[in-house]
Write a structure and sequence with these properties.
222 residues; mainly alpha; two-stranded antiparallel sheet; two-stranded antiparallel ribbon; 9 helices; 58% helix
Length: 222
């Protein structure tokens, strides 16, 4: 198959047949190319399958994500209703995926490193869970959650910042850049949706100061 003559399009539309990419361990994860359905993966041989050992960390992350989704979703469904919850999950999950796609395409263009297209995987559940933290901040910002048998108390309004900071630290320690991208885009998308578009009691959005973007950060750095 002949290329298009445009390097970035050639990489997206005509991937290297010899590159089978990194296996996606988590069903919520996609690469930049597989997001658009252009990723052509070769059939993997039984010998190669036998050499691959299951990665435990993605499975743990998957279990934590699903449990968190069920628990948080159950509460939000009671408050918002099923239709609004599904719409919120769709917005906070889909928009960050495309934002991550654009981010890694630009990273590829800037570095010419094909790993940004074929190997780097973005987890959409990260964005949804960050969106849930934004939703809880909007609903019960002053509620306090006690952790570690009451040793640590955290106000709900700081959950989004803590969620983002945690993923930033993990990115520095482990190089998990995609999770930071998904967490940041999930926070921004969810905040914009609730702040300007979500209907509540006949009013669109929430323009109160308690839900301003500055309120997501600790008071010392606001």
């Amino acid at each position: 198959i002949e290329g298009s003559g445009v390097p970035i399009l050639d990489t997206l539309l005509f991937p290297d047949p010899a590159d089978d990419g990194s296996p996606i361990q988590n069903p919520f994860q996609v690469t930049a190319v597989s997001l658009l359905g252009f990723y052509l993966r070769n059939s993997r041989s039984p010998e190669k399958e036998a050499q691959d050992e299951p990665d435990v960390l993605p499975m743990i992350a998957l279990v934590v994500s699903v449990v968190s989704l069920l628990l948080c979703g159950k509460y939000l469904e009671r408050v918002w209703g099923s239709r609004e919850l599904l719409l919120f999950c769709a917005v906070s999950g889909v928009v960050p995926m495309f934002a991550a796609f654009l981010f890694f395409v630009f990273e590829y263009v800037g570095t010419n490193n094909p790993d940004y297209l074929y190997s780097v995987q973005a987890n959409g559940m990260t964005a949804v869970l960050c969106g849930f933290s934004v939703a809880f901040k909007h609903l019960v910002p002053e509620h306090t959650v006690k952790l570690f048998a009451g040793a640590v108390s955290v106000r709900v309004k700081y959950f989004p910042f803590a969620f983002l900071a945690l993923h930033l630290v993990l990115a520095i320690l482990t190089g998990l850049l995609p999770r930071v991208v998904m967490a940041a885009s999930g926070l921004m998308t969810s905040w914009v949706y609730v702040r300007f578009f979500r209907m509540q009691d006949g009013t669109r959005g929430d323009r109160s100061e308690t839900f301003s973007f500055a309120s997501f950060f600790p008071e010392l750095i606001q």
